[in-house]
Recover the amino acids of this structure.
Protein backbone atom coordinates (compact mmCIF):
# COMPACT_ATOMS: atom_id res chain seq x y z
CA UNK A 1 0.00 0.00 0.00
CA UNK A 2 1.21 3.46 -0.80
CA UNK A 3 0.64 4.52 2.80
CA UNK A 4 3.20 1.93 3.93
CA UNK A 5 5.99 4.08 2.50
CA UNK A 6 8.32 5.68 5.04
CA UNK A 7 6.94 9.00 6.16
CA UNK A 8 9.65 11.07 4.58
CA UNK A 9 9.79 9.43 1.15
CA UNK A 10 9.91 11.95 -1.59
CA UNK A 11 8.33 12.19 -5.03
CA UNK A 12 10.42 13.17 -8.05
CA UNK A 13 11.83 16.69 -7.82
CA UNK A 14 9.53 19.29 -9.40
CA UNK A 15 12.09 21.33 -11.30
CA UNK A 16 9.52 23.93 -12.35
CA UNK A 17 8.32 24.58 -8.81
CA UNK A 18 9.23 28.30 -8.32
CA UNK A 19 10.76 27.53 -4.90
CA UNK A 20 13.04 24.83 -6.35
CA UNK A 21 13.94 27.08 -9.28
CA UNK A 22 14.80 30.04 -7.05
CA UNK A 23 16.76 27.97 -4.54
CA UNK A 24 18.67 26.08 -7.25
CA UNK A 25 19.57 29.35 -8.96
CA UNK A 26 20.75 30.79 -5.64
CA UNK A 27 22.88 27.71 -4.83
CA UNK A 28 24.34 27.67 -8.32
CA UNK A 29 25.34 31.32 -8.20
CA UNK A 30 26.91 30.94 -4.74
CA UNK A 31 28.74 27.76 -5.78
CA UNK A 32 30.03 29.43 -8.93
CA UNK A 33 31.26 32.46 -7.02
CA UNK A 34 32.70 30.82 -3.90
CA UNK A 35 33.36 27.34 -5.29
CA UNK A 36 35.57 28.73 -8.01
CA UNK A 37 37.43 31.10 -5.70
CA UNK A 38 37.89 28.75 -2.79
CA UNK A 39 38.40 25.25 -4.11
CA UNK A 40 37.19 22.73 -1.53
CA UNK A 41 39.44 20.10 -3.08
CA UNK A 42 42.49 22.14 -2.01
CA UNK A 43 41.21 22.58 1.55
CA UNK A 44 40.39 18.88 1.73
CA UNK A 45 43.85 17.97 0.50
CA UNK A 46 45.49 20.17 3.14
CA UNK A 47 43.28 19.04 6.00
CA UNK A 48 42.91 15.33 5.37
CA UNK A 49 45.19 12.35 5.84
CA UNK A 50 47.28 11.40 2.82
CA UNK A 51 45.24 9.07 0.64
CA UNK A 52 46.71 6.14 -1.26
CA UNK A 53 44.93 3.92 -3.74
CA UNK A 54 42.51 1.42 -2.19
CA UNK A 55 43.64 -2.11 -2.85
CA UNK A 56 41.19 -4.87 -3.83
CA UNK A 57 43.64 -6.70 -6.08
CA UNK A 58 44.03 -9.75 -3.87
CA UNK A 59 40.30 -10.61 -3.94
CA UNK A 60 39.78 -14.24 -4.83
CA UNK A 61 37.53 -15.52 -7.63
CA UNK A 62 35.36 -13.24 -9.74
CA UNK A 63 35.47 -9.66 -8.50
CA UNK A 64 32.10 -7.90 -8.78
CA UNK A 65 31.49 -4.19 -8.38
CA UNK A 66 28.56 -1.88 -9.12
CA UNK A 67 28.42 1.61 -10.59
CA UNK A 68 25.38 3.88 -10.20
CA UNK A 69 25.16 7.58 -10.92
CA UNK A 70 22.56 10.33 -10.58
CA UNK A 71 20.81 8.75 -7.61
CA UNK A 72 18.89 10.49 -4.80
CA UNK A 73 15.73 11.77 -6.48
CA UNK A 74 12.25 10.30 -5.89
CA UNK A 75 11.82 7.33 -3.56
CA UNK A 76 10.39 4.93 -6.16
CA UNK A 77 13.24 5.22 -8.65
CA UNK A 78 16.10 5.59 -6.15
CA UNK A 79 14.95 2.73 -3.93
CA UNK A 80 14.15 0.42 -6.87
CA UNK A 81 17.76 0.70 -8.06
CA UNK A 82 19.23 0.53 -4.53
CA UNK A 83 17.21 -2.61 -3.77
CA UNK A 84 18.27 -4.29 -7.03
CA UNK A 85 21.93 -3.44 -6.38
CA UNK A 86 21.72 -4.80 -2.82
CA UNK A 87 20.23 -8.21 -3.71
CA UNK A 88 22.98 -10.76 -3.03
CA UNK A 89 22.31 -12.44 -6.38
CA UNK A 90 20.51 -11.28 -9.46
CA UNK A 91 19.62 -13.59 -12.33
CA UNK A 92 19.94 -12.06 -15.81
CA UNK A 93 19.29 -13.50 -19.22
CA UNK A 94 22.59 -13.30 -21.07
CA UNK A 95 22.70 -14.57 -24.68
CA UNK A 96 19.43 -16.41 -24.06
CA UNK A 97 20.80 -18.18 -20.99
CA UNK A 98 19.99 -17.35 -17.37
CA UNK A 99 23.14 -16.32 -15.55
CA UNK A 100 23.78 -15.34 -12.00
CA UNK A 101 25.34 -11.98 -11.15
CA UNK A 102 26.47 -11.04 -7.67
CA UNK A 103 26.16 -7.88 -5.62
CA UNK A 104 29.38 -5.89 -5.83
CA UNK A 105 32.11 -5.96 -3.21
CA UNK A 106 32.40 -2.27 -4.00
CA UNK A 107 29.70 0.24 -4.95
CA UNK A 108 30.74 3.39 -6.78
CA UNK A 109 28.52 6.44 -7.06
CA UNK A 110 29.42 8.37 -10.19
CA UNK A 111 28.18 11.87 -9.29
CA UNK A 112 24.94 13.72 -8.47
CA UNK A 113 24.11 11.78 -5.33
CA UNK A 114 21.20 14.08 -4.48
CA UNK A 115 18.62 16.39 -6.09
CA UNK A 116 17.73 19.19 -6.39
CA UNK A 117 20.54 20.60 -4.24
CA UNK A 118 22.73 19.16 -1.51
CA UNK A 119 21.81 19.59 2.14
CA UNK A 120 22.29 17.18 5.03
CA UNK A 121 18.57 16.55 5.12
CA UNK A 122 18.14 15.93 1.39
CA UNK A 123 21.10 13.50 1.34
CA UNK A 124 19.59 11.77 4.35
CA UNK A 125 16.06 11.44 2.98
CA UNK A 126 16.67 11.03 -0.74
CA UNK A 127 19.95 9.07 -0.74
CA UNK A 128 21.12 7.48 2.48
CA UNK A 129 17.73 6.24 3.77
CA UNK A 130 16.86 4.28 0.60
CA UNK A 131 20.32 2.68 0.56
CA UNK A 132 20.21 1.93 4.29
CA UNK A 133 16.89 0.16 3.86
CA UNK A 134 18.08 -1.67 0.74
CA UNK A 135 21.17 -3.02 2.52
CA UNK A 136 19.35 -3.83 5.79
CA UNK A 137 19.93 -7.49 6.64
CA UNK A 138 22.14 -7.95 3.57
CA UNK A 139 25.91 -7.77 3.07
CA UNK A 140 27.24 -4.23 2.68
CA UNK A 141 29.72 -3.16 -0.03
CA UNK A 142 32.47 -0.59 0.44
CA UNK A 143 31.13 2.68 -0.96
CA UNK A 144 33.08 5.27 -2.97
CA UNK A 145 31.77 8.39 -4.68
CA UNK A 146 32.83 11.30 -6.83
CA UNK A 147 30.79 14.49 -6.86
CA UNK A 148 28.71 15.70 -9.79
CA UNK A 149 27.56 19.25 -10.35
CA UNK A 150 24.61 18.90 -7.92
CA UNK A 151 26.96 17.74 -5.13
CA UNK A 152 29.10 20.81 -5.75
CA UNK A 153 26.24 23.29 -5.22
CA UNK A 154 27.16 23.64 -1.52
CA UNK A 155 30.89 23.61 -2.30
CA UNK A 156 30.98 19.91 -1.34
CA UNK A 157 30.24 20.40 2.35
CA UNK A 158 27.45 17.80 2.67
CA UNK A 159 29.09 15.41 0.18
CA UNK A 160 32.36 15.38 2.17
CA UNK A 161 30.47 14.65 5.38
CA UNK A 162 28.74 11.69 3.76
CA UNK A 163 31.49 10.05 1.71
CA UNK A 164 34.86 11.41 2.88
CA UNK A 165 34.68 10.59 6.59
CA UNK A 166 35.60 6.92 7.02
CA UNK A 167 34.62 6.98 10.71
CA UNK A 168 31.04 7.84 9.72
CA UNK A 169 30.33 5.49 6.81
CA UNK A 170 27.37 5.66 4.42
CA UNK A 171 24.08 3.80 5.00
CA UNK A 172 25.87 1.28 7.21
CA UNK A 173 28.55 0.68 4.52
CA UNK A 174 32.26 1.30 4.94
CA UNK A 175 33.63 4.40 3.23
CA UNK A 176 37.39 4.82 2.85
CA UNK A 177 38.11 7.92 0.80
CA UNK A 178 39.06 11.21 2.47
CA UNK A 179 39.02 13.26 -0.72
CA UNK A 180 36.53 13.78 -3.52
CA UNK A 181 38.66 11.66 -5.92
CA UNK A 182 40.20 8.24 -5.49
CA UNK A 183 41.94 5.28 -7.12
CA UNK A 184 41.05 1.59 -6.75
CA UNK A 185 43.56 -1.15 -7.47
CA UNK A 186 41.43 -4.03 -8.74
CA UNK A 187 42.32 -7.65 -9.58
CA UNK A 188 44.17 -8.54 -12.82
CA UNK A 189 45.94 -5.19 -12.88
CA UNK A 190 42.80 -3.16 -13.59
CA UNK A 191 42.85 0.29 -11.96
CA UNK A 192 39.82 2.49 -11.50
CA UNK A 193 40.61 6.20 -11.31
CA UNK A 194 37.77 8.44 -10.21
CA UNK A 195 38.30 12.08 -11.06
CA UNK A 196 36.69 15.22 -9.61
CA UNK A 197 36.45 18.07 -12.13
CA UNK A 198 34.54 20.46 -9.86
CA UNK A 199 31.84 22.51 -11.64
CA UNK A 200 33.12 22.02 -15.16
CA UNK A 201 36.52 23.26 -14.05
CA UNK A 202 39.78 21.40 -14.38
CA UNK A 203 42.06 19.29 -12.24
CA UNK A 204 43.54 20.84 -9.11
CA UNK A 205 47.21 20.43 -8.27
CA UNK A 206 46.84 18.08 -5.23
CA UNK A 207 44.65 15.81 -7.35
CA UNK A 208 47.27 15.69 -10.10
CA UNK A 209 49.95 14.90 -7.49
CA UNK A 210 47.75 12.16 -6.02
CA UNK A 211 47.32 10.47 -9.40
CA UNK A 212 51.06 10.89 -10.11
CA UNK A 213 51.82 8.91 -6.94
CA UNK A 214 49.30 6.25 -7.93
CA UNK A 215 50.77 6.09 -11.43
CA UNK A 216 54.24 5.52 -9.97
CA UNK A 217 52.97 2.29 -8.41
CA UNK A 218 51.58 0.93 -11.69
CA UNK A 219 53.50 -1.42 -13.94
CA UNK A 220 53.45 -1.32 -17.73
CA UNK A 221 50.60 -3.81 -18.02
CA UNK A 222 48.18 -1.77 -15.86
CA UNK A 223 44.77 -1.21 -17.50
CA UNK A 224 42.77 1.89 -16.69
CA UNK A 225 39.12 2.65 -16.09
CA UNK A 226 38.36 6.38 -15.74
CA UNK A 227 35.31 7.53 -13.78
CA UNK A 228 34.50 11.12 -14.71
CA UNK A 229 31.68 13.44 -13.61
CA UNK A 230 30.21 14.18 -17.04
CA UNK A 231 30.24 12.78 -20.60
CA UNK A 232 32.22 15.53 -22.22
CA UNK A 233 32.46 13.35 -25.36
CA UNK A 234 28.70 13.98 -25.80
CA UNK A 235 28.55 17.53 -24.43
CA UNK A 236 31.38 18.82 -26.64
CA UNK A 237 29.34 17.71 -29.65
CA UNK A 238 26.12 19.31 -28.43
CA UNK A 239 27.80 22.56 -27.31
CA UNK A 240 30.85 23.05 -29.54
CA UNK A 241 31.41 26.64 -28.42
CA UNK A 242 31.38 25.80 -24.69
CA UNK A 243 35.07 25.70 -23.75
CA UNK A 244 34.70 23.76 -20.50
CA UNK A 245 33.09 20.84 -22.34
CA UNK A 246 36.22 20.17 -24.35
CA UNK A 247 36.89 16.63 -23.40
CA UNK A 248 40.54 16.47 -24.12
CA UNK A 249 41.80 19.04 -21.63
CA UNK A 250 41.71 17.02 -18.42
CA UNK A 251 41.41 13.34 -19.31
CA UNK A 252 43.99 13.51 -22.08
CA UNK A 253 46.32 15.36 -19.71
CA UNK A 254 46.01 12.47 -17.26
CA UNK A 255 46.48 9.87 -20.01
CA UNK A 256 49.48 11.56 -21.60
CA UNK A 257 51.28 13.24 -18.73
CA UNK A 258 50.37 11.22 -15.66
CA UNK A 259 49.50 7.61 -16.52
CA UNK A 260 51.29 7.57 -19.89
CA UNK A 261 48.74 5.21 -21.41
CA UNK A 262 45.18 5.39 -22.66
CA UNK A 263 42.20 4.48 -20.52
CA UNK A 264 40.33 1.46 -21.86
CA UNK A 265 36.98 2.38 -20.33
CA UNK A 266 35.30 5.66 -19.34
CA UNK A 267 32.34 5.61 -16.97
CA UNK A 268 30.15 8.58 -16.24
CA UNK A 269 26.64 9.76 -15.36
CA UNK A 270 25.31 13.33 -15.52
CA UNK A 271 23.00 12.52 -18.43
CA UNK A 272 20.24 10.32 -17.10
CA UNK A 273 20.18 7.49 -19.61
CA UNK A 274 22.41 4.69 -20.83
CA UNK A 275 24.61 5.13 -23.89
CA UNK A 276 27.74 3.30 -24.90
CA UNK A 277 30.17 4.72 -27.43
CA UNK A 278 33.13 2.84 -28.89
CA UNK A 279 35.96 3.77 -31.24
CA UNK A 280 38.04 1.72 -33.66
CA UNK A 281 40.54 0.88 -30.89
CA UNK A 282 37.75 -0.67 -28.81
CA UNK A 283 37.83 2.08 -26.16
CA UNK A 284 34.47 2.24 -24.38
CA UNK A 285 32.82 5.47 -23.23
CA UNK A 286 29.78 4.66 -21.15
CA UNK A 287 27.18 7.12 -19.90
CA UNK A 288 25.12 5.50 -17.18
CA UNK A 289 23.09 8.08 -15.30
CA UNK A 290 19.95 6.11 -14.55
CA UNK A 291 20.38 5.69 -10.79
CA UNK A 292 17.20 7.53 -9.81
CA UNK A 293 16.97 11.01 -11.35
CA UNK A 294 14.48 12.01 -14.06
CA UNK A 295 15.04 10.52 -17.50
CA UNK A 296 16.93 12.44 -20.20
CA UNK A 297 16.09 11.97 -23.91
CA UNK A 298 18.21 9.55 -25.96
CA UNK A 299 17.00 10.79 -29.36
CA UNK A 300 18.15 14.42 -29.09
CA UNK A 301 20.78 15.58 -29.60
CA UNK A 302 21.85 12.98 -32.11
CA UNK A 303 24.91 11.22 -30.66
CA UNK A 304 25.12 8.22 -33.00
CA UNK A 305 28.37 9.43 -34.52
CA UNK A 306 30.55 11.70 -32.39
CA UNK A 307 33.10 14.00 -33.95
CA UNK A 308 35.95 12.37 -32.00
CA UNK A 309 35.47 9.11 -33.92
CA UNK A 310 33.33 7.34 -31.34
CA UNK A 311 30.16 5.57 -32.48
CA UNK A 312 27.10 4.81 -30.44
CA UNK A 313 26.69 1.08 -29.86
CA UNK A 314 23.80 1.04 -27.41
CA UNK A 315 21.19 3.40 -26.02
CA UNK A 316 18.47 2.99 -23.41
CA UNK A 317 15.62 3.74 -23.63
CA UNK A 318 15.57 3.45 -27.42
CA UNK A 319 15.08 6.55 -29.55
CA UNK A 320 11.51 5.70 -30.51
CA UNK A 321 10.46 5.47 -26.86
CA UNK A 322 12.35 8.66 -26.05
CA UNK A 323 10.71 10.53 -28.93
CA UNK A 324 7.22 9.47 -27.91
CA UNK A 325 7.80 10.43 -24.25
CA UNK A 326 8.43 14.04 -25.36
CA UNK A 327 4.70 14.38 -26.21
CA UNK A 328 3.98 14.42 -22.48
CA UNK A 329 5.11 18.06 -22.47
CA UNK A 330 1.63 18.90 -23.75
CA UNK A 331 0.45 17.87 -20.27
CA UNK A 332 2.98 20.21 -18.65
CA UNK A 333 0.48 22.07 -16.38
CA UNK A 334 -0.72 18.76 -14.90
CA UNK A 335 2.76 17.27 -14.39
CA UNK A 336 4.11 20.54 -12.97
CA UNK A 337 1.16 22.17 -11.21
CA UNK A 338 3.34 24.40 -9.05
CA UNK A 339 4.93 26.00 -12.13
CA UNK A 340 1.63 27.84 -12.56
CA UNK A 341 2.42 30.18 -9.66
CA UNK A 342 5.24 31.77 -11.63
CA UNK A 343 3.10 32.36 -14.71
CA UNK A 344 0.15 33.51 -12.64
CA UNK A 345 2.40 36.22 -11.19
CA UNK A 346 4.00 37.13 -14.54
CA UNK A 347 0.67 37.33 -16.37
CA UNK A 348 -1.08 39.30 -13.63
CA UNK A 349 1.81 41.80 -13.40
CA UNK A 350 2.02 42.19 -17.19
CA UNK A 351 -1.73 42.72 -17.50
CA UNK A 352 -1.72 45.18 -14.61
CA UNK A 353 1.03 47.30 -16.18
CA UNK A 354 -0.54 47.09 -19.64
CA UNK A 355 -3.94 48.22 -18.36
CA UNK A 356 -2.57 51.19 -16.40
CA UNK A 357 -3.23 53.68 -19.21
CA UNK A 358 -6.30 51.97 -20.61
CA UNK A 359 -9.45 54.10 -20.82
CA UNK A 360 -12.93 52.67 -20.38
CA UNK A 361 -13.60 53.21 -24.09
CA UNK A 362 -10.53 51.15 -25.04
CA UNK A 363 -11.74 47.99 -23.35
CA UNK A 364 -14.38 46.72 -25.76
CA UNK A 365 -12.32 46.53 -28.93
CA UNK A 366 -9.28 44.22 -28.76
CA UNK A 367 -7.28 46.23 -31.31
CA UNK A 368 -7.82 49.50 -29.44
CA UNK A 369 -6.87 47.79 -26.19
CA UNK A 370 -3.71 46.33 -27.76
CA UNK A 371 -2.71 49.72 -29.19
CA UNK A 372 -3.19 51.34 -25.76
CA UNK A 373 -1.14 48.60 -24.08
CA UNK A 374 1.71 48.97 -26.61
CA UNK A 375 1.60 52.71 -26.19
CA UNK A 376 1.96 52.26 -22.43
CA UNK A 377 4.87 49.85 -22.93
CA UNK A 378 6.78 52.45 -24.92
CA UNK A 379 5.92 55.53 -22.89
CA UNK A 380 6.01 54.18 -19.35
CA UNK A 381 9.61 53.34 -18.21
CA UNK A 382 8.49 50.85 -15.56
CA UNK A 383 6.29 49.03 -18.07
CA UNK A 384 9.10 49.03 -20.63
CA UNK A 385 11.67 47.71 -18.16
CA UNK A 386 9.30 44.94 -17.12
CA UNK A 387 8.90 43.83 -20.73
CA UNK A 388 12.63 44.02 -21.44
CA UNK A 389 13.43 41.92 -18.37
CA UNK A 390 10.84 39.31 -19.38
CA UNK A 391 12.26 39.05 -22.90
CA UNK A 392 15.81 38.94 -21.42
CA UNK A 393 14.79 36.17 -19.03
CA UNK A 394 13.38 34.02 -21.82
CA UNK A 395 16.48 34.59 -23.97
CA UNK A 396 18.64 33.49 -21.01
CA UNK A 397 16.54 30.34 -20.62
CA UNK A 398 16.83 29.37 -24.30
CA UNK A 399 19.11 26.43 -25.07
CA UNK A 400 20.91 26.54 -28.39
CA UNK A 401 24.47 26.37 -29.65
CA UNK A 402 24.05 29.52 -31.78
CA UNK A 403 23.64 32.95 -30.19
CA UNK A 404 21.41 34.23 -33.02
CA UNK A 405 19.01 31.32 -32.48
CA UNK A 406 19.06 31.97 -28.78
CA UNK A 407 17.94 35.57 -29.27
CA UNK A 408 15.34 34.63 -31.91
CA UNK A 409 14.00 31.60 -30.00
CA UNK A 410 13.94 33.40 -26.65
CA UNK A 411 12.27 36.51 -28.08
CA UNK A 412 9.58 34.42 -29.85
CA UNK A 413 8.91 32.48 -26.66
CA UNK A 414 8.63 35.72 -24.64
CA UNK A 415 6.35 37.38 -27.21
CA UNK A 416 4.10 34.30 -27.14
CA UNK A 417 3.72 34.63 -23.36
CA UNK A 418 3.21 38.41 -23.51
CA UNK A 419 0.53 37.98 -26.17
CA UNK A 420 -1.15 35.31 -24.03
CA UNK A 421 -0.89 37.55 -20.94
CA UNK A 422 -2.52 40.39 -22.90
CA UNK A 423 -5.35 38.16 -24.11
CA UNK A 424 -5.99 36.72 -20.64
CA UNK A 425 -5.90 40.22 -19.12
CA UNK A 426 -8.21 41.64 -21.79
CA UNK A 427 -10.70 38.78 -21.35
CA UNK A 428 -10.66 39.40 -17.61
CA UNK A 429 -11.43 43.09 -18.20
CA UNK A 430 -14.22 42.23 -20.59
CA UNK A 431 -15.72 39.72 -18.19
CA UNK A 432 -15.72 42.09 -15.25
CA UNK A 433 -17.09 45.06 -17.20
CA UNK A 434 -19.51 43.36 -19.61
CA UNK A 435 -20.65 40.22 -17.81
CA UNK A 436 -20.38 41.23 -14.15
CA UNK A 437 -21.27 44.83 -14.93
CA UNK A 438 -18.64 46.37 -12.66
CA UNK A 439 -17.66 49.98 -13.23
CA UNK A 440 -14.40 50.16 -15.16
CA UNK A 441 -11.60 51.38 -12.88
CA UNK A 442 -13.47 50.68 -9.66
CA UNK A 443 -11.53 48.85 -6.97
CA UNK A 444 -13.85 45.83 -7.18
CA UNK A 445 -13.42 45.63 -10.95
CA UNK A 446 -9.63 45.97 -10.76
CA UNK A 447 -9.26 43.35 -8.04
CA UNK A 448 -11.63 40.93 -9.71
CA UNK A 449 -10.02 41.19 -13.14
CA UNK A 450 -6.58 40.83 -11.47
CA UNK A 451 -7.78 37.67 -9.78
CA UNK A 452 -9.13 36.21 -13.03
CA UNK A 453 -5.84 36.96 -14.82
CA UNK A 454 -3.91 35.38 -11.96
CA UNK A 455 -6.02 32.20 -11.95
CA UNK A 456 -6.06 31.74 -15.73
CA UNK A 457 -2.47 32.89 -16.25
CA UNK A 458 -1.00 29.90 -14.37
CA UNK A 459 -2.30 27.06 -16.53
CA UNK A 460 -2.15 29.07 -19.78
CA UNK A 461 1.51 30.05 -19.20
CA UNK A 462 2.46 26.54 -18.15
CA UNK A 463 0.77 25.10 -21.24
CA UNK A 464 2.65 27.51 -23.54
CA UNK A 465 5.93 26.49 -21.88
CA UNK A 466 5.05 22.82 -22.46
CA UNK A 467 4.33 23.51 -26.15
CA UNK A 468 7.58 25.47 -26.46
CA UNK A 469 9.59 22.61 -24.89
CA UNK A 470 7.88 20.03 -27.06
CA UNK A 471 8.54 22.03 -30.26
CA UNK A 472 12.16 22.70 -29.21
CA UNK A 473 13.06 19.07 -28.74
CA UNK A 474 10.85 17.74 -31.52
CA UNK A 475 11.90 20.16 -34.26
CA UNK A 476 15.30 21.49 -33.20
CA UNK A 477 16.58 18.75 -30.88
CA UNK A 478 17.28 21.37 -28.18
CA UNK A 479 16.23 21.76 -24.54
CA UNK A 480 16.80 18.06 -23.88
CA UNK A 481 17.35 18.80 -20.20
CA UNK A 482 14.38 21.15 -19.73
CA UNK A 483 11.97 19.18 -21.96
CA UNK A 484 12.60 16.01 -19.95
CA UNK A 485 13.16 17.36 -16.42
CA UNK A 486 9.64 18.73 -16.92
CA UNK A 487 8.30 15.19 -17.34
CA UNK A 488 9.68 13.87 -14.02
CA UNK A 489 9.89 10.36 -15.47
CA UNK A 490 10.79 7.88 -12.75
CA UNK A 491 10.93 4.82 -15.03
CA UNK A 492 13.70 3.51 -17.34
CA UNK A 493 16.27 3.40 -14.55
CA UNK A 494 19.57 1.52 -14.81
CA UNK A 495 23.02 0.88 -13.37
CA UNK A 496 26.19 -1.05 -14.25
CA UNK A 497 27.35 -4.31 -12.75
CA UNK A 498 30.99 -5.10 -13.55
CA UNK A 499 32.96 -8.31 -13.12
CA UNK A 500 36.66 -9.06 -13.42
CA UNK A 501 37.18 -12.80 -13.83
CA UNK A 502 40.25 -14.93 -13.16
CA UNK A 503 41.49 -14.40 -16.73
CA UNK A 504 41.34 -10.62 -16.21
CA UNK A 505 38.36 -10.12 -18.56
CA UNK A 506 36.26 -7.12 -17.56
CA UNK A 507 32.56 -7.73 -18.25
CA UNK A 508 30.22 -4.74 -18.01
CA UNK A 509 26.52 -5.45 -17.63
CA UNK A 510 24.06 -2.60 -18.07
CA UNK A 511 20.92 -3.51 -16.14
CA UNK A 512 17.62 -1.65 -16.37
CA UNK A 513 14.23 -1.51 -14.70
CA UNK A 514 11.67 -0.39 -17.29
CA UNK A 515 8.95 0.38 -14.77
CA UNK A 516 9.80 0.99 -11.12
CA UNK A 517 7.31 0.07 -8.35
CA UNK A 518 4.87 2.77 -7.20
CA UNK A 519 3.72 0.98 -4.07
CA UNK A 520 5.71 -0.46 -1.19
CA UNK A 521 5.07 -2.25 2.06
CA UNK A 522 7.07 -2.28 5.25
CA UNK A 523 8.95 -5.54 5.90
CA UNK A 524 11.61 -7.08 8.14
CA UNK A 525 14.84 -8.69 6.99
CA UNK A 526 16.99 -10.30 9.66
CA UNK A 527 15.12 -8.25 12.21
CA UNK A 528 15.84 -4.99 10.38
CA UNK A 529 13.23 -2.66 8.95
CA UNK A 530 13.11 -2.49 5.18
CA UNK A 531 10.64 -1.98 2.33
CA UNK A 532 9.39 -4.43 -0.28
CA UNK A 533 7.81 -3.64 -3.61
CA UNK A 534 4.07 -4.21 -3.71
CA UNK A 535 3.21 -3.36 -7.29
CA UNK A 536 2.38 -6.00 -9.87
CA UNK A 537 2.94 -3.65 -12.77
CA UNK A 538 6.59 -3.05 -11.85
CA UNK A 539 9.10 -4.91 -14.03
CA UNK A 540 12.13 -6.96 -12.99
CA UNK A 541 15.70 -5.83 -13.64
CA UNK A 542 16.87 -6.96 -17.09
CA UNK A 543 20.06 -6.87 -19.10
CA UNK A 544 20.09 -4.12 -21.76
CA UNK A 545 23.74 -4.27 -22.88
CA UNK A 546 26.87 -6.25 -22.17
CA UNK A 547 30.45 -5.85 -23.24
CA UNK A 548 33.59 -7.81 -22.47
CA UNK A 549 36.99 -6.18 -22.46
CA UNK A 550 39.88 -8.58 -22.73
CA UNK A 551 43.18 -7.83 -21.07
FE1 LIG B 1 22.39 14.37 -12.80
Amino acid sequence: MAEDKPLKCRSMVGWYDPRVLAHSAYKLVIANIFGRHSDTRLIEALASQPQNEFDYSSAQGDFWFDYAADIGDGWNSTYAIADAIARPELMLEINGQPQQTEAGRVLIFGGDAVYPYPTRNEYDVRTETPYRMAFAGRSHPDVFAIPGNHDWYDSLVAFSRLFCRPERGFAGCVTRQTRSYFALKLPANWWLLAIDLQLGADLDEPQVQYFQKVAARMDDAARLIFCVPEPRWILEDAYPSHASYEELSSTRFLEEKVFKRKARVFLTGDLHFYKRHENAEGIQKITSGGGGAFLHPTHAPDTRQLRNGFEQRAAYPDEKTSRSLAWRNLLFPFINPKSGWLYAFLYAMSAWLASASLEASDVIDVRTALAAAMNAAIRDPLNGMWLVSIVGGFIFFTDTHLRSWRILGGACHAVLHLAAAFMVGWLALLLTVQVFDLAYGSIAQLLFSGLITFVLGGPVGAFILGVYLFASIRIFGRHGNEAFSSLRIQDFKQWLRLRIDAAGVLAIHAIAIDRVPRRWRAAQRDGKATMEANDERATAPRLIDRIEIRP
